[in-house]
Each structure stands twice: as C-alpha cells, then as structure tokens.
Amino acid sequence: MDNSSRTVVVTGFGPFGEHTVNASWVAVQEMKKLGLGNNVDLHVHEVPVEYQKVQSLVPSLWKQFHPRLIVHVGVSGMATTVTLEKCGRNHGYKGLDNSSFCPDSQCCIVGGPDCINSVIDMESVCKRVTATAGLGVAVTVSKDAGRYLCDFTYYTSLYLSRGRSAFIHVPPLGKPYSGEELGRALQAIIREMLELLDQAEDQIRCQQHIH
C-alpha cells in the first residue's frame, strides 16, 4: 500500500463559550501521544470555532494530505459518553460562531443534499469498541451532531470526501472522563474505523475479481 492510503488526519476544536479548554483538542493531543501504530501517518489539527475558517481549512486538509480518513472530534456539553455521529446535516446553521458570524444561507453547501452519511458503519464501530476489555469509556451512536460548528465541519468533510469522514463527540473534561481516557477511547475507535475501511475495500476488490 502506498503511504497516502495510511494517512489519517484528526482534528479537535479550539476554545469557545464556557469551554475555555476544549476537551476535543485535549483528547486529540492525548491520542496523538499514543499514536495509531507505525503504519499510520497521523496528522492532528486544531480547528477554530469559526464557520469561515472551517470552510477554508477542511478542503485544504483534504488537498494537502489526501488522507484515507479524516476524523473530526468536538465537545458536547450534553454528552456523557463518547458519541459516534452517523451523519452531517446541511441546513439550520443559525448559531453565531466565535467571531459572531453565521452563514447567510444557514447551510454548509448550497444545493448539497440535506444529509450525508459516513461510509463507516458507526453501529459496528460502537459494538466492537464496547467489546474492548478495559477501555472503561462508554461509547454510543447518534444521528444528530447538533447544527453548530461540529455538524457544519462534519457535513463539509463528508461532502468533500464522499463520506470518508467521521465525527466523534466527547463530553467536557472530568464529566466523567479525563483527557487521557478520552485519548485512549479515540485511539481504539479510530483503529476500528480503519479496520472496517480495510474490510470494505477487500470486499470491493474481491467483487471486482469475480466479475
């Protein structure tokens, strides 16, 4: 396999509102310390909580790294588990960002589909990670990433990658997990995602040989 096929980009968000330390970026940095194994070229980026920055940064990450997968991580004040988001939504962006801006169109991509699903089966990832002994972190699946910068980033990435993106919400630090525990959970989750992508591609290759 050429190296670009093993490149993974993981993003977390910068501070906003009461989240003066954003648990998502802390978790991503902890996960980077652990790594994803020698055969994965891992890049991490902090994303500012601004719609216009997301609109320029997400395409540039895809263009620069041509990653196998981009995983975006965000914090949710309502989450008590690590939550795998199945899809991103295009419309309903009314919340103002850190620079008091929101898109006039209130959508991510004018004319894009209402909802885009990830190619990764989040239910499978959830089951497999939950079966991991000793992880000590609860993982769940959600269909609604909340129509703020998290959802906006996810939809933009899904649109650009034809679904080869994932989004993970983490709870705020200490509610109940530490940054280290969240980092370990991200490592386990992203490894499962890569494993599932490998399996899906093997199946496609087998089908091409049959025909």
Plain-language structure description:
The chain has 211 residues and is of the alpha/beta class. The protein has a single domain (3-210), classed as Aminopeptidase (3-Layer(aba) Sandwich), CATH 3.40.630. It has five helices and eight strands. It has a six-stranded mixed β-sheet with strand order 2-1-3-8-4-7, with helices on both faces. It has a two-stranded antiparallel ribbon with strand order 5-6. Helix 2 (51-65) packs parallel to helix 4. The longest helix has 32 residues, at 179-210. The chain is globular, with a radius of gyration of 16 Å. 39% of the residues are buried.
Count the strands? 8
Strand percent estimate: 15-25%
Question: Which radius of gyration do the C-alpha atoms yield?
Answer: 16 Å
**Count of separate structural domains:** 1
| Number of helical stretches of at least 4 residues | 5
Low-confidence stretches: none
Structural class computed from helices and strand pairing: alpha/beta
* Shape, per Cα inertia axes: globular
Question: Nutshell version of this structure?
Answer:
This protein has about 210 residues and is an alpha/beta fold. The chain contains 5 helices and 8 strands; from the N terminus they run E-H-E-H-E-E-E-E-H-E-H-E-H.
